[in-house]
Write a structure and sequence with these properties.
Blueprint: H1 2-5, H2 9-25, H3 37-45, H4 47-59, H5 62-77, H6 82-90, H7 92-97, H8 102-115, H9 118-121, H10 130-141, H11 146-158, H12 180-195, H13 203-228, E1 269-271, E2 277-279, H14 280-286, E3 292-293, E4 300-301, E5 307-308
InterPro entries: CRA_dom, CTLH/CRA, CTLH_C, Fyv10_fam, Rmd5_dRing, ZF_RING_GID, Znf-RING_euk, Znf_RING/FYVE/PHD
Pfam family, one: CTLH
Keywords: Cytoplasm, Metal-binding, Zinc, Zinc-finger
């Protein structure tokens, strides 16, 4: 995933082929009976799952998706907005559903780029460039954004009055593109990855950073466990909370109000007919004779009436 996300498609393909050959050969690293032997064996036992996931990602066209992303980013770096705008138009409903401003920001930058004229943008000096070109572009593409961005559109159109003295006008900053291109590249990458259900950051970078943040707490935990001569017996969750920054939180966390346990795929949150939510295991414990009473209200219902919910 990391290699695909970083655009290293050739390396990713080679890595996949070599790992597949490694699996087919049935070879595994030798163990020496040290403390981590069981963990190591467990890791290599799960190689098939990892390879299966990787193959599934390839079959679903992730590589093709990222190739599209990098091709569009290359065009943006060449000051060509058209491929990015076409992609945003194609995915307009999904972007709008996320509350994204990307499509408007791309069209806004295209308007500004045309407005600055051939001396700045290097495009042909004709009716599609400069002030006439920007005005024509605004008439065609801005109406669809009036409901959400009317004020910004009004400012862009009003700025045309100051064309001859833009540097000393109130709209100088609006037409300053020194950071606009890098900003729109970052926004495009973020929205593109979001529509794929992925973080805009490299998965390997996120994993390494989260591990570095958690390491001091885990080292302290290890020393306490050693001192108390106890063992960490919970395999599915950490025994202590690791405080990660908000940028590394990609899904909501629900704690069952009855058991005080965090829900998981094996123990998902279930909503009762009354609207209250508990973990699935708590729901089964509450059930008596096929019926149960909500712990927060007088309503009674059956387990089959509860529905799993997704945040």
């Amino acid at each position: 995933m990391h290699l695909l996300r970083e655009g290293q498609f050739g390396v990713a393909s080679t890595f996949f082929e070599e790992t597949q050959n490694f699996q087919e050969s049935g070879s595994s690293p030798e163990t020496n009976g040290d403390l981590f032997t069981s963990q190591r064996d467990e890791i290599f036992a799960s190689d098939g799952d990892v390879l299966g996931d990787f193959a599934a990602e390839e079959s679903q066209g992730l590589q093709g998706q990222f190739e599209t992303m990098y091709n569009i980013l290359h065009q943006l770096k060449q000051r060509n907005l058209r491929p990015a705008i076409e992609w945003a138009q194609k995915n307009s409903k999904e972007l709008e559903g996320r509350g994204s401003n990307l499509e408007f920001e791309l069209n806004k930058l295209q308007f500004v780029w045309l407005f600055l004229g051939p001396n700045v943008n290097g495009l042909p000096d004709d009716e599609n460039n400069g002030l006439p070109g920007a005005l024509r572009y605004a008439r065609i593409y801005f109406p669809q954004f009036q409901s959400r961005f009317l004020r910004e559109i009004q400012q862009l159109i009003t700025a045309m009055v100051f064309e001859s003295n833009l540097q000393n006008s109130p709209y100088q900053q609006t037409f300053n593109t020194s950071t606009s291109w890098s900003d729109v590249c970052n926004s495009f990458t973020r929205e593109f990855c979001s529509l794929l259900g992925l973080s805009a950051e490299s998965p390997l970078y996120l994993a390494a950073t989260a591990g570095a943040i958690a390491l001091p707490t885990l080292i302290k935990l290890a020393s306490i466990v050693k001192e108390k001569r106890t063992e960490w017996t919970t395999a599915t969750e950490l025994p202590v909370e690791i405080a990660l920054p908000r940028s590394m939180m990609f899904h909501p966390i629900f704690v069952c109000p009855v058991s005080k346990e965090q829900t998981s795929e094996m123990n998902p949150p279930m909503m009762m007919p009354c609207g209250h939510v508990v973990a699935k295991e708590s729901l089964h414990r509450l059930s008596k004779g096929g019926r149960f009473k909500c712990p927060y209200c007088p309503n009674e219902s059956q387990p089959k009436d509860a529905r799993q919910i997704y945040f």
